[in-house]
Design goal:
The complex is a heterodimer of chains A (about 290) and B (about 525).
Chain A: H1 2-18, E1 31-41, E2 44-52, H2 54-57, E3 68-75, H3 78-84, E4 93-94, E5 100-104, H4 105-110, H5 113-121, E6 130-134, H6 139-142, H7 153-167, H8 176-184, E7 191-198, E8 218-228, E9 231-235, H9 238-248, E10 254-259, E11 266-271
Chain B: H1 2-17, H2 22-25, H3 35-46, E1 52-59, E2 63-70, H4 76-91, H5 95-100, H6 105-114, E3 121-124, H7 127-135, E4 139-143, E5 149-152, H8 182-192, E6 198-205, E7 211-218, H9 224-235, H10 245-252, E8 264-266, H11 269-278, E9 281-285, E10 291-294, H12 306-309, H13 318-340, H14 348-358, H15 365-385, H16 391-408, H17 414-427, H18 433-453, H19 455-471, E11 473-474, E12 477-478, H20 521-529
Antiparallel strand pairs in B: 1-2, 2-4, 3-5, 4-5, 6-7, 7-9, 8-10, 9-10, 11-12
Subcellular location (chain B): Cell membrane; Membrane
Keywords (chain B): Membrane, Transmembrane, Transmembrane helix
Membrane topology (chain B): Multi-pass membrane protein
């Protein structure tokens, strides 16, 4: 019993000392980052992130400010760039709720393994956010565009990609860890989906532009981009994207058009179930004494 | 534990100096032959209290006698009847008696026989017992030159009628509850179990209160080890007074330092009867409608009588109570842990909402939760203790000031109000109030753990709690059985109440000798009809 008392007293002493100095953070102190983007400009990394303004999102406050704030910083390393962001945000960025990682096309063409390496290793990040490439734009551009239907762009991009890959099949939701697994496996090269900006980027920044029933600027998913190792080498067209997804078994549901009998009109077929099997065969072909 | 040691020392000291009780004041040990001597002894012992009635009369012509009783405790009707009978014995005197001019044995026997309308009549030679009997409402008849007092059982004081239970309600089931009267309570049990095997052992505890208690059990079913343990622990009690069953409970329970109760109480005769049929032992204490039942295991605190009175499908509802146990215990701490340590566990949209609510709230989540929980506990205490007339005022203050105004003033977030409400509602789900009290206390511990170590702290806390629960015993029976030592057959009445055809045996750990409850009636019934 004496020992137990000692233990309890010690415990009670320890509790007030420990409290607050560990990694406890109150909710209102969080700068929740919902989407991140990385560009490589002139050898320096530019880290862009969208931070949610919770009070603008809550129902009882009718604010005029945007629900998200995009901030960016450049640095020689990505790590430096995102730490530098604390000079702009209210607190250290909170990355656990990141839904998408956008990478600029140019950067993607140069190779992204180093970028992914940092994001995978850092403990602030989860590895379940989706990876997309900004087609013809920088990641910064994509993250500077507001969205409709879901006012949080990160969420919108996540949901739109999930639903389009599930129901149309020309896109593919590739989380970071899947991309890296594809990158690391032998004989396999990763792919990812391209995100497009329709309209002028500059106009996508203002809430007022979204009062229109048909906003001029929107984010939209394109087709798959093919990588060779960690470098983007080109974009597939819609048919190729769907074909690729069929081949690897990514199609959950899609729509195929086929001409009717006697070429009278076109018939749409909804694919509801697919099954793909990939097998490798090594064939010996006799071709003048050479192995293929 | 130096505190306990010093306490036990102190109690020893007080024992030596303790107040005079009946044993110490009574210098006279035996009832004497002289009536006057007896009466003066009674007077010195009971003092000049004006409710002590001494009524002198004569049996035969010259034999002096006196009735001693306490006004208000003795039943007037049976008393008058008794006096009438006694005075009638005057006219029926024999010539021999007159000649002898003394009270013969025959006439005393006659007196006793005539007094049969009273019920119980006995001779008591011990002066202490005589006093004790008078104090419990019996009437003592003292007769000149007769060395014992005739005690007539005339107990009958103002008592409450059997009414509906006020704290342990059911929708379907008996609507009677125990009263403050021990005899009424034993009769209520006897009414339910008309078994010759039922045993009611009486004891008197409390140097000053001389409270009657009764240990009730069914001889052929009860666990003898538990019974011996109960007797042993009750015999060790040394206290000046027993005013409620909690006095006994605290003195015989296995662990005083455990937050968990190891004795269950009930004000329902049906619950006590069910416990007796399981082989458990009931302790009835005079002066309180709450009867103690031992052994009480963890699962017993989640069993409502209604589980057995509704069709067996209702037995599924019991899971809710276990769920409520955990929600009453853990919801505030989980909220604290998740919002201050593990924000990644919250879905993004919810996180944004929560963060928006917390904006502008000056306190950390832990302090916020603490404020709300403590305020609620204060409200609850106020609700129990306030005079009924101002009940509405308190509920208005509680609902408006605490709920709405606190949120609007930005002191607490709306979610915290929900969290506290869930906790509060959950803690009212338990059929046994004792368990709710322990959960209330433990909740604050878990909140502190959550605020310092997050979910890690909560799991450590749960682990320690589980260890503690598994180490507890209630009168020798492991507290967590049938989970602690796993017993598969007893699972039938643990988390769920299984259909009655499966409840064919008594709980194994409580009862090992007489286990069969019923034959499989259902099987037979089905065959005959098909």
């Amino acid at each position: 019993m004496k020992q137990l008392t000692k233990f309890i007293v010690l415990f009670l002493i320890i509790i007030p000392i420990l409290s607050g100095c560990w990694n406890s953070r109150e909710l209102d102190d969080l700068s929740i980052s919902n989407a991140i983007g990385v560009d490589k400009i002139n050898g320096e990394y530019m880290f862009t992130t969208q931070i949610i303004n919770p009070s603008e999102l809550s129902k009882n406050v009718a604010g005029k400010r945007t629900v998200i704030t995009t901030i960016d910083e450049t640095g020689e390393t990505i790590f430096q760039a995102w730490r530098k962001l604390t000079t702009e945000s209210k607190s250290k960025l909170y990355f656990s709720h990141v839904r998408v990682l956008v990478i600029g096309e140019e950067t993607a063409r140069e190779g992204i393994s180093e970028i992914l390496d940092v994001l995978l290793r850092d403990h602030d990040f989860r590895s379940d956010f989706l990876l997309v490439v900004a087609k013809d734009h920088t990641a910064n551009d994509v993250l500077s565009v507001l969205t409709t239907l879901n006012v949080i762009p990160g969420d919108k991009m996540f949901e739109a990609l999930t639903s389009s890959s599930e129901h149309y099949g020309t896109t593919s939701e590739i989380p970071l860890d899947k991309f890296i697994t594809d990158l690391m496996s032998k004989g396999k090269n990763p792919i990812t989906t391209g995100v497009l900006i329709t309209g002028k980027v500059e106009e996508g920044r203002y809430t007022s532009k979204y009062e229109d029933i048909k906003p001029e600027v929107t984010l939209k998913y394109g087709t798959l981009g093919a990588f060779k190792e960690d470098k983007l080498i080109g974009w597939m067209n819609e048919e190729q994207s769907r074909g690729y997804n069929f081949a690897v078994g990514n199609i959950k549901s899609t729509l195929l058009n086929t001409p009717c009998v006697n070429n009278e009109g076109v018939m749409g077929i909804e694919v509801i179930r697919t099954k793909a099997k990939m097998s490798a065969q090594k064939k010996m072909v006799k071709s003048k004494g050479k192995f293929m | 534990m130096s505190y306990y040691r010093s306490r036990s020392k102190r109690s020893k000291r007080t024992k030596e100096k303790s107040h005079p009780s009946i044993e110490q004041t009574t210098k006279v040990e035996k009832v004497s032959m002289a009536l006057d001597k007896n009466l003066s002894a009674i007077k010195t012992n009971l003092g000049d209290s004006n409710d002590v009635v001494v009524r002198r009369f004569n049996i035969n012509k010259d034999t002096k006698a006196a009735l001693v009783y306490i006004d208000g405790l003795a039943d007037r009707i049976s008393l008058q009847d008794f006096i009438l009978k006694v005075s009638m014995s005057n006219s029926n005197r024999t010539d021999q008696d007159i000649e002898n001019n003394s009270v013969s044995k025959k006439s005393i026997n006659y007196l006793k026989e005539q007094a049969t309308s009273i019920g119980e009549v006995k001779d008591v030679t011990n002066f202490k017992d005589t006093l004790g009997a008078i104090l419990s409402g019996d009437t003592a008849v003292l007769i000149e030159s007769y060395d014992s007092a005739i005690i007539a059982s005339t107990r009958g004081w103002e008592k409450r009628d059997v009414s509906e239970p006020t704290t342990q309600n059911v929708i379907r089931g008996p609507k009677e509850a125990f009263t403050e009267n021990l005899r009424t309570n034993t009769s209520l049990i006897r009414r339910k179990i008309k078994d010759p095997d039922i045993r009611i052992e009486s004891k008197t505890i409390g140097k000053h209160t001389n409270t009657d208690i009764a240990i009730v059990y069914i001889d052929s079913i009860s666990n003898k080890k538990v019974l011996d343990e109960v007797r042993k622990r009750i015999d060790q009690i040394d206290i000046d007074g027993i005013l409620e069953s909690a006095y006994i409970e605290e003195m015989i329970e296995d662990s005083n330092s455990s937050p968990f109760p190891t004795i269950i109480n009930s004000e329902r005769p049906d619950v006590v009867s069910a416990a007796l049929l399981e082989g458990r032992v009931a302790i009835i204490i005079d002066g309180t409608p709450f009867v103690l039942i031992v052994p009480a295991l963890f699962i017993h605190f989640f069993q409502s009588p209604e589980d057995y009175y509704e069709r067996s499908f209702y037995g599924i509802i019991r899971v809710l109570r276990y769920l409520a146990f955990f929600s009453a215990l853990l919801v505030p701490s989980l909220y604290i842990a998740v919002t201050t340590f593990h924000q990644e566990m919250i879905p993004t949209t919810l996180l944004i909402d929560l963060a928006a609510q917390r904006e502008g709230i000056p306190f950390p989540a832990y302090v916020e939760a603490l404020i709300m929980e403590v305020t609620f506990e204060i409200l609850r205490e106020a609700g129990i203790r306030m005079p009924r007339a101002i009940g509405q005022a308190v509920s208005i203050v509680g609902a408006l000031v605490l709920g709405q105004a606190a949120v609007e003033a930005g002191l607490v977030s709306p979610t915290m109000v929900i969290v506290v409400s869930i906790t509060a509602i959950s803690s009212f789900v338990f059929p046994a109030y004792d368990m709710a009290i322990s959960v209330r206390i433990l909740r604050f511990g878990f909140m502190t753990l959550a605020a310092t170590f997050g979910l890690f702290g909560i799991s450590i806390g749960l682990f320690l709690m589980l260890l503690h629960l598994c180490s507890l015993r209630s009168f020798g029976i492991p507290y967590m059985s049938p989970f602690g030592p796993v017993n598969f057959t007893d699972q039938k009445d643990a988390v769920f109440r299984f259909p009655r055809k499966l409840l064919s045996t008594r709980p194994r750990l409580i009862n090992q000798t007489n286990t069969k409850r019923q034959n499989n009636y259902r099987k037979k019934y089905g065959r005959e009809n098909s």
